[in-house]
Input
Amino acid sequence: MEVRKFHFSNREKRSPIKIHYKDLEPYQKKRLWVSLGLIITIFTLYLIVTCTFLNQNRSNQTTTWEKHLSSDPVLMAEVEKRATASNATPVSVGTFVGNIPSLSIKDSSFKMYLWIWFRWNGDDALDPMNHFRIYKGSYDKLDVVKDEVVGEEHYQLVRTTVTVNRTFDTTRFPLSSHQMYTYIESSYPVTRMVYVADTSKGGESTISDNIDISGYNVMNHDTAVTAYQYESDHGDPSKDGDIINSEFLTAVMVNRASFGTYIRCFIALVGTITWVLITLFICTYHRVDPLAMIPAALFGTVTNIMVGANLLPEAIDTGLLEFVNFFGIAILLAGAIAIININRVRNKYETYEFAGYYGRAMLITLTAFTIIGNFLLPFFAYIWW
Output
């Protein structure tokens, strides 16, 4: 009977006794609200700042897109002036985007399979298909599909794969959208030839419906005629002043097709956060000190950061990848501090009931912020429409 009585008493001692907020002492309420106030304030401010930043970057995609497709009116007026004065030949240009074989954020480049056509009247010596270059890029050997003259109209059709060097915006990676701009720049100055968009029936620039880009969907496609002004005559004695070349822009915007890459980047972080919440639960309800389990979670968090970093170039924009990882580390540290406070209350003050109440409050608060934060951050980073 003595053994059974002792065992029953030990169980009673270890079972947490639930108390209500009204039963807490003033100093206990103060300790509780200081801890809750710090957590709520810090995490709320962090989420407001980061979500606002991500949302602004997402909204700027439309502005950036429109900016690239618009031409400088002053420059285009100068183009028209020079072209008119020298009686330059207008050449109708169009493109068909057949495929985008690769888009590499890490290598800062993309490839685009293009059909390019040129139509013009007069100037038999003009050969636009062999007198263009790709701005900030290159193209493979041209496959000449057609080169003919019908009446007075010249027609040239070529196909090739272009490779363009472009530094992609990684602010919202791994949920970011990307814009690819291919500038076909004439080798002739605008005093000899100017590009105009082909608006003839059946001649409008289009994009294939069967484009397959791994991990992305095509959001938008457009073209525009622009110009590039070199602030030099390249030492050419036949030129007087700067050189302006006509350009034809083919633009494609893509968006992440799914959350697969996002899950890949943060699945380990979710595991470590879950581990920390479990240790806090154990400390709260079983009066066990699991603080030694925290370093393993910290190691997992640091390892998780490298998963996303390996998919990006060395120079990246601060954004979603860092925000989610910082948030996870903050949850981990808050959980560790909560466990330390629970142990301190139990060991120094021997107020087991308050320790349990404090632990439950911390567990509920951190769990709530974990769910809210990991919902809001990707929500404000991804383009849903």
